[in-house]
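User: Just a sanity check before I run the rest of the batch. Below are the structure tokens for the first item. I only need the designed sequence back.
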């Protein structure tokens, strides 16, 4: 199993309009994304075969992509179907074909997979409750100057919240929490107990009665985190992030905040969007600072018991990086007490 075997978001479906081309980077590969003649998403290597110009600088017309340098035209299979300098004498050849990647559209996202021959067939991760009756979804996109592993770990890390998001999400008031951390089948599953308050701005609206919060965090290989808060009827929230590896130290993160607040669903949208973006921008800043230190001094972490989540995440991503199947790692379950 390799990172190239998985599906990664490259755009919102709404971003990929007819006759538009988008430039993207994934695992160091440059991509030109457009819609073919049949309306399906197309992903080509962002390089013209002729003189190595970038195809993403070209134009889309009738589902074909024309290079902006000498006008070579590529269809949705990557085949060169016209060379202006050769006129009517041009004859298509299988040798004139740009690298083309598999695409799928699901839950309002365009996905691609880089592997030519993936080891197994599967669909992209389903976003929780997307467009289901009674649920609303707010989407935000942010770029982090750090790698996927550190981004994912941040998104499911509680101890940092009191210091990076003081008052907004939590504060420095000490609360004793317990968590059960499980590594199983290429995933990390975390369930918390004894959490009743300390949610900052959200407390009065989301948990007015101070009931125990059902809070769980999930990591799904290779790049997906999902945070769930359930505080009773019409107080249910998912924060799902897909971290897209553009380069070694640049990660584009697509985040869905999907919630059920009952009659407040529509009214809450601008507040949910503003708060989500405000919190994420604080994470962008601290992860940028961490990325700078790692670039200078390297990665050497000193783990506490509360970091067991990160140890499991790293074991899964390290297995993929070495070409192994992380689902073969032994199942483990650990109970941890910590303060936040």
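Assistant: Here's the designed sequence for the first item:
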């Amino acid at each position: 199993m390799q990172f190239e075997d998985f599906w990664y978001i490259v755009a919102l479906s709404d971003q990929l309009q007819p006759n538009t081309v988008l430039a993207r980077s994934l695992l160091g590969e440059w991509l030109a994304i457009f819609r073919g003649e049949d309306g399906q998403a197309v992903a080509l290597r962002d390089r013209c075969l002729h003189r190595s110009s970038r195809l993403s600088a070209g134009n889309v017309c009738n589902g074909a992509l024309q290079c902006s340098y000498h006008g070579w035209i590529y269809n949705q299979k990557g085949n060169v179907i016209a060379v202006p300098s050769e006129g009517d004498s041009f004859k298509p050849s299988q040798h004139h074909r740009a690298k083309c990647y598999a695409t799928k559209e699901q839950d309002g996202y365009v996905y691609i997979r880089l592997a030519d021959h993936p080891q197994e067939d599967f669909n992209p991760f389903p976003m929780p409750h997307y467009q289901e009756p009674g649920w609303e979804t707010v989407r935000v996109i942010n770029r982090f100057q750090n790698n996927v592993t550190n981004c994912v770990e941040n998104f499911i890390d509680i101890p940092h919240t009191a210091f990076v998001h003081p008052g907004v999400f939590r504060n420095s008031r000490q609360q004793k929490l317990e968590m059960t951390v499980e590594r199983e089948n290429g995933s990390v599953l975390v369930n918390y107990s004894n959490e009743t308050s300390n949610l900052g701005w959200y407390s009065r609206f989301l948990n007015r009665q101070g009931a125990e919060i059902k809070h769980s965090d999930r990591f799904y290989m290779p790049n997906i985190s999902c945070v769930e808060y359930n505080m009773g009827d019409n107080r249910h929230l998912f924060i799902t992030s897909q971290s897209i590896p553009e380069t070694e130290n640049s990660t584009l993160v697509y985040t869905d905040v999907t919630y059920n607040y009952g009659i407040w669903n529509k009214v809450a949208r601008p507040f949910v969007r503003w708060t989500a973006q405000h919190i994420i921008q604080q994470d962008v800043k601290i992860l940028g600072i961490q990325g700078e230190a790692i670039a200078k001094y390297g990665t050497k972490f000193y783990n506490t018991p509360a970091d067991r989540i990160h140890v499991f995440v790293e074991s899964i991503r390290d297995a993929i990086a070495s070409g192994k199947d992380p689902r073969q790692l032994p199942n483990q379950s650990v109970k941890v007490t910590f303060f936040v």
